[in-house]
Amino acid sequence: PKEEYQLGRSMWVHASAYSAYDPGCGNRTATGTLVRHGEIAVDPAVIPLGTRVYIPGYGEAVAEDIGSSIRGNKIDVAFDSLEEVMQFGRQEIEIFILDQY
């Protein structure tokens, strides 16, 4: 049975970072929006596309992308530059589900 999210629910995720400037990355997400600060790639079985989340130190983001290596409790956080991607690196962080579609 799939677990239902509640408003304000938190979850721990393995977070990595990406941008449209990464080799092999396009500038569009799976939902057709631009890769930019404020969107994340998710496993839609865990965090449905369209879900708004709050990431401490980053701000609000919307699940608008998917990735072949994003499975389970993993997210890929979008940034506007490679420098920001390198600064973020990989982290284990707690995120907060604001609402779910």
SSE order and pairing:
Blueprint: E1 10-18, E2 39-41, E3 52-55, E4 59-65, E5 74-78, H1 82-88, E6 91-99
Textual characterization of the structure:
The chain is mainly beta. It is 7% helix and 37% strand. The protein contains one helix and six strands, in the order E-E-E-E-E-H-E. A hairpin with a 3-residue loop joins strand 3 and strand 4 (59-65). Residues 1-7 have low confidence and may be disordered.
What's the oligomerization state? single chain
How much helical structure, as a percent, in the residues?
A: under 10%
End-to-end separation in angstroms reads 18 Å
Rg to the nearest angstrom? 13 Å
Number of strands: 6
Number of helices: 1
**Helix vs. strand class:** mainly beta
Strand order of the largest sheet: 1-5-2-4-3-6
Please describe the biggest sheet, giving its number of strands, its sense, and whether it closes into a barrel.
6 strands, mixed, barrel
SSE order, as H and E? EEEEEHE
What coarse outline follows from CA principal-axis ratios? globular
How much of the sequence is in beta strands?
Answer: 35-45%
In the predicted model, the low-confidence regions spanning at least 5 consecutive residues are: 1-7
Mean pLDDT: 90
Main attributes of the structure:
6-stranded mixed barrel; 6 strands; globular; 37% strand; 7% helix; mainly beta; 101 residues
What is the compact description of this entry?
It is built from one helix and six strands; from the N terminus they run βββββαβ.
